[in-house]
Design brief:
The chain is an alpha/beta fold. A seven-stranded mixed sheet has the order 3-2-1-4-5-7-6, with helices on both faces. Helix 1 crosses helix 6 and helix 7 packs parallel to helix 10. The protein has a single domain, classed as Vaccinia Virus protein VP39 (Rossmann fold, 3-Layer(aba) Sandwich).
């Protein structure tokens, strides 16, 4: 597993924060998205963002159910497709961005449910809160924080969702440990993210643009599973989607990064509840 010093990890985190602040500002201005050329559909043409999001597994109805500006074409899949959200559940969205997945989750959990979006970028957080106000979402809140150190109490959530964010963290083992902490017993992970299927060349791993673009920080599948198991998760499933190489190729044209990474669905259960045993689910 790749481990970084606190200094180098802080540099990575700060570069990601600055890159996604540019994305938020660009979205507000209707422009392009700065360095984050991948997993980013920011455009002044809504049809382009719609095309990107439907390519990732969202429906036209999904896009119609969120405030204008919430869908920025960010992500590498649709975590709700594997989340099986239920009325009244508490959902945490890691790296909520403009709130796209959080708002869609809010529709599914209903007024009796609650969605907490976490993001470390103040500009993005302001955008998400503005979108929530525009859409009159009373069951959604957004909190400033890092996904390694969640501003959430123990045993709070029924489910954690995330879309192409954990690969950006320089300390993924901390992400999974804190996710385990804030989940209720029997709580579950439903994540879309980028994973590595082969060891990436050092020049790619150390490229800050590829890192902010959701590629260079991807972990090998076996390493990712080991981190999750060490954090305490059970029933871990990591399902790579080979057809995702097509759109990943477009994230960094000519770099060949699609030979090393793919999008994947990632699921797991925190033991202790009904769903920690397949016999009662």
């Amino acid at each position: 597993m790749n481990k970084q010093t606190n200094v180098s990890a802080d540099k990575v985190r700060q570069h990601v924060r600055e890159s996604y602040a540019e994305v938020a500002d660009a979205s507000n201005d209707g422009g392009c998205c700065g360095e984050v050329a991948s997993c980013c559909g920011v455009s002044d043409d809504a049809a382009i963002n719609t095309l990107i999001s439907t390519r990732l597994g969202y429906s036209e109805d999904d896009l119609a159910n969120v405030p204008d500006g919430a869908d920025m074409g960010l992500g590498c899949g649709n975590p709700r497709a594997i989340a099986s959200l239920k009325e009244g559940e508490v959902v945490i969205d890691l790296g909520a961005g403009g709130g796209f997945d959080a708002f869609l989750a809010a529709h599914e959990v209903g007024k009796s449910g609650h969605v907490i979006g976490i993001d470390m970028t103040p500009t993005m957080l302001s955008k998400a809160r503005h979108n929530a106000e525009k859409g009159k979402f009373s069951n959604v809140e957004f909190r400033l924080g890092e996904i390694e150190f969640l501003p959430v109490a123990d045993n709070t959530a029924d489910i954690i969702i995330s879309n192409c964010v954990i690969n950006l963290s320089p300390h993924k083992e901390c992400v999974f440990r804190d996710a385990f902490r804030v989940l209720k017993p029997g709580g579950r992970l439903a994540i879309s993210d980028v994973v590595a299927t082969a060891e990436m060349p050092e020049e790619m791993k150390n490229d800050p643009i590829l890192h902010a673009g959701c590629m260079a920080g991807a972990s090998l599948i076996d390493d990712l599973e080991a981190m999750m198991r060490e954090a305490g998760f059970e029933q871990i499933r990591i399902l790579p989607k080979d057809d995702s190489r097509e759109f990943i190729r477009d994230w960094a044209p000519g770099r060949g990064v699609e030979a090393y990474v793919v999008s994947a669905h990632i699921e797991a259960i925190k033991p202790g509840g009904c769903c920690s045993s397949s016999a009662c689910c």
